[in-house]
Amino acid sequence: MALSKTFSALSDENRQKIIDLLKKQEMTVSEIKKHLNITMPTLSHHLDILKRADLVSSRREGQQIYYSLNLSVMEEISEKIIKFLSI
Description:
The chain is α+β, with helices and mostly antiparallel strands and 87 residues long.
């Protein structure tokens, strides 16, 4: 996993808010939307970027899609950043 892809995905304030929301619990798109002042297409775009960076995963349950934080990837990124910053 390239850190540049991760940093690019995290560079947007709305995507940072999505990550922060998903740290607490998995959520549907409509639940996430309640916390952000953006359109549904824009939210879908942000979620797609986070999914392509492997920061977020999704699962379908009926007609609902639940999004959650990909904790193993977040841990791996944290380790890389700590290693990079170590002297």
